[in-house]
Amino acid sequence: MASAKGIALVSTHEKSPFLQSIDRFMVVRRYSRRTIKTYLYWIKYFIRFSRLRHPSEMGEAEVESFLTYLAVDRGVSASTQSLALNALVFLYRNILDTPLEDMGSFRRSHKPVKLPTVLNRDEVTRLLSCMSGIHLIIASLLYGSGLRRIEAVRLRVKDIDFQYSQIQVWNGKGNKHRLTTLAPELFSSLKDQIRRVELYLNDDRRNAQYSGVQMPDAQARKYVNAPHTLGWQYLFPSAKLSLEPGTGQLRRHHIDESGVNKQIKRAATLASIGKSATSHTLRHSFATHLLESGADIRTVQEQLGHHDVKTTEIYTHVLKRGSRGVRSPLSDIHSKGRFGK
Predict the structure, then answer these.
(1) Catalytic annotation on 289?
(2) Residues 6+ apart with CB under 8 A from 43
């Protein structure tokens, strides 16, 4: 039977004071809307799975049961199961102040090794030729600088370093910072884009309700005028101003990242590319083509922002002939003219 506390959690977090409090907690601490949405989804799922019991009445045993259910009964991927675990670890540590102590015994999903899809240089050329505008610039950065899609749309004007032909990536995956290369061929397009950003900013400054661009907490406190400066504006801003969730302040956010994948897939279709092409495919191609051109694996690791070089090593697969460089015996038969016509 559901507890009295659990009954208050019934369906959507819009009607649940408990889930609304989690939403507010994360908004105030500048968690991304994507993270907030994901964490709330898994917390709600956990509560429903537990027959509306309040999380404060449960602990490691119930969390393990839920995660095992996801792996065994629902057959979710290892990455999906990890997302659910991260959400619940956050819930118990940050909201309930009762950290989960030992989560090593539950049954984890097996994550098979998946080789990345890589476009060859001709396919990349054809794909980019079917794109235009902002999405062409972003796709060019994904391939030319090895950026993740979310890293590209979150770029600020100040992150583009024309003098040293590099891009500063702040708070990438794992909240790591890095420098990556910038192709000089993009200088002209990027400078035009910065001029468009400046036009937006000039219009926004004339709006008395405009609160400036959203800033990281530390910089917002230290540089109070920075939200209205060009350098801190998003390089790929939204066409419309919007109210920031949680604060209600009028701001100009960056463009929606989901639109990038849609444009890349559309371009792949127009270019008659049979492979599955996404934003991450261009990042995979960046890494593989760098290695193919002779870059050492440690350099590629740094460019991609990988914590472990083993993650980068998977891109060496396309540099080998066949499997592990083994020559097929069928080739020997063909070369000696022993194959029937």
Answers:
(1) no
(2) 19, 22, 55, 87, 88, 91
Dist. CA 153–CA 144, nearest whole Å: 15
Phi, psi of 139 (to 5 degrees): -60, -35
Element (H, E) at 181: strand 178-181
The Cα–Cα gap between 60 and 64 comes to 6
Does 234 qualify as catalytic in the annotation?
no
List, run by run, the mean pLDDT of 10-residue segments along the chain (341 residues).
Answer: 41 71 86 87 95 92 90 84 92 92 63 76 95 96 93 96 93 80 95 97 95 80 86 96 86 92 96 93 90 85 81 67 56 60 48
Confidence at residue 7, expressed as pLDDT on a 0 to 100 scale: 36
Tell me which residue has tokens 């980068």.
Answer: 312
| Active-site annotation holds for 283 | yes
Tokens of 157: 């004007």
> Which residue among 5, 108, 158, 280 is the active-site one?
280
Q: What is the pLDDT of residues 212-227, one digit of tens each?
A: 998 876 676 777 889 9
The structure's pTM equals 0.73
Q: What is the pLDDT of residue 109?
A: 62
Catalytic residue among 154, 156, 251, 283: 283
Q: Which residue out of 53, 148, 284, 289 is catalytically annotated?
A: 148
Known catalytic residue at 334: no
277-310 exposure pattern, b = at least 16 Cβ within 10 A, e = fewer: bbbebbbbbbbbbbbbeeeebeebbebbbbeeee
Nearest Cα neighbor of 258 from 173, 152, 102 is: 152
Does residue 280 carry a catalytic annotation?
yes
- Annotated active-site residue in 121, 173, 327, 334: 173
Per-residue pLDDT at 49? 95
Q: Look at residue 161 and give its three-state secondary structure.
A: strand
Does the annotation mark 148 as catalytic? yes
149: Cβ contacts below 8 Å, ≥ 6 apart = 138, 142, 257, 260, 261, 279, 280
